[in-house]
Amino acid sequence: MSAIREGTRQVMAWLHGWTGLALGWVLFVMCLAGTMSVFKPEISRWMRPEATASAGRVEAIAAATSWLAANAPKSTGWYLTAPDDRANNVEATYDTGGDYVARALDPVSGAPVARETLGGEFFYRLHFELELPFPWGRWLASIAALTMLVALVTGIIAHRRIFRDFFTFRPRKGQRSWLDGHNALGVLAMPFHLMITFSGLVTLASLNMPWGIVANYGDDLAAAFHDLAPGAVDRPVAGRPATLAPIAPMLREAERRFGGAPFSRVAIANPGDAASVVTVYRSDAAQIGATTAEVSFDGPSGRVIGAWAEMRPAVGTYAVIYGLHMGRFANGLLRWLYFLGGAMLTLAVASGMILWVVKRRERAPLSLGNRIVERLNVGILVGAPIGFAAYLCANRLLPPGLADRAQLEVTVALDTAGLALLVALAVPPRLGWPLLLGVLALLCLAAPIVGNGLSYLAQALARGDFVLPVTDALLVAVAVAASVGVRTVTRRRSDTRRTMRGRAMA
Amino acid sequence: MGARAAERRGWRYRGNVAARVLAGSLGAYGVASCLAMAVARLGAGGRIDGVIAGTLCAYLAVPAVAIWAFLARGPWRAWGGVVVLVAAFGAMAWMIGPPAR
Q1: Are residues B98 and A216, on separate chains, in Cβ contact within 8 Å?
Q2: Domains of chain A, residue spans
Q3: What is the ipTM of this complex?
Q4: Who has the most CB within 10 Å: A169, A306, A459, B35?
């Protein structure tokens, strides 16, 4: 590894540190929310414990469209995701004359389930929109991802011994331990980190790197999107009301054209209009490439008016990179590996941020700037998980049927995280760390219990449904980890105090 | 607090770092954008194929240029590299011209 000059390595280490610090907190929130999104459907199920009805995907979509036809007939579009072996409700996005709403629809009755919540969608949206208005959230996420790409590459070059770091951990040695931990987390899952960062940039490509489109299409964006998805049928509103033909035969016809593969999403444009279009997309749960086949139907008659299966190598490459980021193809063990990879990246970011402070504290008293960094570390590295845990608790405590319930849950999450951040900024970190870690542990312990939690657990076990028990177990595991954190921080402090007292006596 | 720390507070040092930060961020994005345009127009398969190839290449240019900006012997050389690449890729895209419909 001596091919790289020592000076080069130092420059890389310097660049790695500063690029990591620049957007580290944003990256931490993105990585944590992204990791949770791996289990988006499972989180949604945990958050809708009473909505346990299930039906086949064709029947569920038929129920959803008949409810929507009665309750949102003037909509400009219904966008439905069918239930599968992971989700039991229909996820619907539609408008009733105003803004779009997202609702989980009961697969049997087609009506929205009582406990109105964004479920796992909250983490998924937070991951790349960061609760900021369009397009600013996606811009910030793109800039953060580009910065992380630079941080990853410089981190790798700065490294002396990639292989040895697999096996190096020297605990309880301050800076050395944090460095070993940071290196191990970065090195062990390095291919995952590179893949997920690069593919994440690709998912937002039309926003963050539109210059290829500009070069080849000028400002004719519609032509670019048509070339990307030539199957899409886009036709103007006719202005005459009409009713949809029965949807089940369309869904079955689409599956026949997919060669028997199941559909996953259905989009119905202008459902109450004579020019309505029903587009059915093939599920990508059994292939890496994201959504590569679709069939479109004339709404009122149910005739096929367009069909497309993606076979072009370049677009296929794009679909595979996109699909690698979404990870919907990953089932069983592979899904847990996505979760583990994401968790390791999240912890690598967190340990890197802590290392920044620890390294400087061991050399000299911290400057004002670095003391602020230290407190922001407490506030965001623990504050964000506190907000997430509060979101889960709010889900159990807010009564079903409350107006604006879904938004209230999000407000609780953001306000709790904001409050944690303020506390962390106000109190010294030696108090802030154990205090906030303690709050996190309590919230994670509360989430499975509060608001009838234990009876939901009993019901799930009686049904043989393991999503809720496993989620509860993970929450308890986080609570245990946070308590160990509290113990470690407080014990280390009393250790230092003892040594200082010992020194004073000598 | 040695001579090195004092040097770090000087305007010369700060200007040097600021120039490299700009070259490594805005400059890197500029190179990436021009590369995306050049490869998009170079792409033989079709209009959209070129766009995809160009976009994928562009992301790889960002860390490369960012690293160059800080490894170059001085800030002038860092910016020189950025300007040369922007000019080269930009000229390439311009000379190929937009694809025929």
Answers
A1: yes
A2: 1-48+117-203, 49-116, 204-326, 365-506
A3: 0.93
A4: B35
